[in-house]
Amino acid sequence: MRFLSLVFATTLAPLTAFAQCGGNFSSFTESMKNEAVNAGYEPALVRRFFANVRQDPKVLKADRAQGVFQKPFIDFTRHLISQNRINRGQTMSQKYDAIFRRIESTYGIDRGVLLAFWAFETDYGSFQGDFNTLNALVTLAHDCRRPDLFRPQVFAALELYKNGDFDPNTTTGAWAGEIGMVQMLPGDILENGVDADGDGHVRLKTSAPDALMSGAKMLSSFGWKASEPWLQEVTVPANMDLSKTGSNQKLSINDWQAMGVVPRSGTWEARDTEASLILPQGHKGPAFIAYPNFDVYFEWNQSFTYVLTAAYFANRLEGDPVYQAGNPEQGLSGAQMKQLQKALQSKGHDVGKVDGILGAKTRIAVQKEQKRLGLPADAWPTPALLQKL
Fold first, then answer.
1. Could you tell me if residue 341 is inside a domain?
2. Whole-angstrom Cα distance, residue 3 to residue 184?
3. Peptidoglycan binding-like domain: which residues (predicted)?
4. Same domain, yes or no, for 378 and 360?
5. What is the DSSP letter of 96?
6. What is the pLDDT along the chain (389 residues), one digit of tens a residue?
7. Same domain, yes or no, for 51 and 179?
8. Residues 29 and 165 in one domain
9. Pair (164, 281) in one structural domain
């Protein structure tokens, strides 16, 4: 599931006051109708668009339960990556070779990158979600957890409806409102949708060329640097200063080389750039150099584990070998991770929400505490660290 783009949080929102979240759902829907009319949409169009909208409790349940992101990197990759998915990716690469060539020449994005998203989001289009998209978007706009993220997407869907590219009764997708083979939100479709097959419409649910080209354009709009790498597996010397690792710190490739970091296979992808050294499960586990394009992945999804897995799978689809898993130290359970996050908060660290997920803020705080306590500062929390805290 792709996390929300913020592109339309300001550009699509009508200029009237926001409808307040929470309260009676029917009253909330009426306020959104009035807002749409005040923004210039025809009243009859607005009535038809909202005519059958309903609150969907299953959407809220899905929003509250995203436990898969608590899995550590190695478990997560084994959960998502199979030989069947690799084989199907190779088949899809051959089947849509012409469109991938267009993407590579137009946007400079390797096919492995898009194939990985296509695989993870919808298993190459085979399951695109069966939630009514309008119900999902209005339900999440009404919910007060993240209304500012979802509310603009309702109006983006209205604009698509006005253009004949959205049906409020039959358009379905993921629980969070994403549509199509690579799961794009209505606002993203308006901004980056491409009619790649030339039929006069952007059909992300039924046209693989439209979906792939639109996804490529969106990545490009997020800042993807054409024909540049995104991730490279490396080996790390035993005596390295681990406090310099982490996605929030960057050094030149020459600096990493001087410290003894070497590519696991082949040569360095780009010596003339700055990059991060990532140890997703500490200094005894896999190691990767993350190039600037890796940061673009976070515009698609904000989960560190998902992003790293998608970037690694793109490499696999481009022919790279399976990473060296090593022998990582034991990690923490979800309950222990929450306990750790609370302990870090008590020491003044900003870890964001206490959710049991090892996100970027928690990793930074862990690394600081490891350094303070004289532990290997690899940002991988262990029971030993939790006990010391």
1. yes
2. 10
3. 333-389
4. yes
5. T
6. 444 443 344 344 443 445 578 899 999 999 999 999 999 999 999 999 999 999 999 999 998 876 556 789 999 999 999 999 999 999 999 999 999 999 999 999 999 999 999 999 999 999 999 999 999 999 999 999 889 999 999 999 999 999 999 999 999 999 999 999 999 999 999 999 999 999 999 999 999 999 999 999 999 999 999 999 999 999 999 999 999 999 999 999 999 999 999 999 888 987 789 999 999 999 999 999 999 999 999 999 888 999 999 999 999 999 999 999 999 999 999 899 999 999 999 999 999 889 888 988 999 999 999 999 999 999 999 999 999 99
7. yes
8. yes
9. no
Indicate the Cα dihedral angle 254, 259, 260, 263, nearest 10°: -40
Residue 73 lies in a domain: no
Ordered alpha helix ranges (H), the chain: 8-11, 25-38, 43-50, 57-64, 73-80, 83-95, 97-107, 111-122, 133-142, 147-162, 186-192, 208-221, 253-258, 292-300, 304-317, 334-346, 360-373, 383-388
- Of 385, 352, 379, 344, give the one whose Cα is nearest residue 364: 379
DSSP state of 344: H
Same-domain check for residues 240 and 213: no
Q: Please check whether residues 242 and 352 belong to one and the same domain.
A: no
Nearest in space to 155 (alpha carbons), one of 76, 260, 263, 41: 41
Mark which of 221, 247, 280 sits at the end of a domain. 221
> CATH number for the domain including 256?
1.10.530.10
Number of domains present in the structure of the chain: 3
If asked whether residues 305 and 235 sit together in one domain, one would say yes
CA dihedral 157, 158, 162, 165 (to 10 degrees): 20
- Pair (308, 341) in one structural domain: no
Amino acid at 106: T
Residues in Cβ contact with 239 at an 8 Å cutoff, skipping those fewer than 6 apart: 260
Q: Which residue range is the domain that position 342 belongs to?
A: 334-388
Give me the half-sphere count of Cα atoms (radius 13 Å) on the Cβ side of residue 9. 8
Q: What residues have CB less than 8 Å from 315, skipping those under 6 apart?
A: 112, 231, 232, 233
